[in-house]
Specification:
226 residues, elongated, 8 helices, 36% strand, two-stranded antiparallel ribbon, single chain, 10 strands, alpha+beta
């Protein structure tokens, strides 16, 4: 219960005193103290002498390795999930059609959901796929399922690589509410075009990742001198 309180609290927020927490949860102060020590060892809280104990959420590194959100969270020992799942088939706007390599107005599946890790909102994910190529997708995909797992299982599609662009965006009030952060908080806007092992474009997505929970990792190198 104390872990849940910490995970659902804002990063950097001051936690109640041991005495207040003991009264709140109906346990002994020694029990609270032991739970706090465990949280401190896991890097989820930090104690500041004379000030108290503060929430310290770990920063997740978004690396260059091409994985689905679900696989990424599982590799971190976290349970992936989703909230507010929305999916529909609609005509492709010109910009999305260009990314998918289809004609403007052709039918696409548009999927939007808040992705969670251990129940905590982490990203607002929006992705688009050709409805002609994957006609049954929306009828076979569940809210919490990995899109890439469904594509592999149902359509025998293997995602191999992706081109990603990362920029900084400010969350609108509606987006911030869904991610449970303050309005206009900074976020990473990640645009991804994913390609299968046959070189076909499979999806185009624009996702917002919480700026307070993510860091972007990139490999850079200097060009060889002539």
């Amino acid at each position: 219960m104390l872990t849940t309180l910490v995970l659902e609290s804002r990063d950097g927020s001051l936690l109640p005193s041991e005495r207040a927490l003991a009264e709140r949860f109906g346990v002994a102060r020694m029990t609270v103290r032991g739970a706090m020590e465990e949280l401190r060892s896991r890097g989820l809280v930090r104690r500041v002498s004379g000030r108290g104990t503060f929430v310290q959420h770990p920063t997740l590194t978004h690396s260059e390795i091409f994985r689905s959100f679900s696989d990424d969270m599982r590799n971190r020992g976290m349970t992936p999930g989703s909230r507010s799942y929305r999916a529909r088939t609609r005509p492709a706007p010109r910009d999305i059609a260009a990314k998918l390599g289809i004609e403007p107005g052709a039918p696409i599946h548009a999927i939007e959901r808040v992705r969670t890790a251990d129940g905590i909102p982490m990203a607002l994910e929006r992705t688009n796929l050709s409805a002609d190529r994957y006609p049954r997708l929306l009828s076979v995909m569940g809210r919490d399922e990995s899109l890439y797992d469904v594509l592999a299982r149902v359509f025998n599609v293997r995602l191999e690589s992706a081109e990603q662009t990362v920029s900084i965006a400010r969350l609108s009030p509606a987006e911030a509410k869904r991610l449970e952060v303050p309005e206009y908080d900074p976020a990473f806007l990640i645009e991804r075009v994913a390609v299968d092992n046959m070189g076909n474009v499979v999806e185009f997505g624009r996702s917002l990742y919480r700026g307070d929970r993510y860091a972007i990792q990139m490999h850079v190198s200097r060009p060889s001198e002539a």
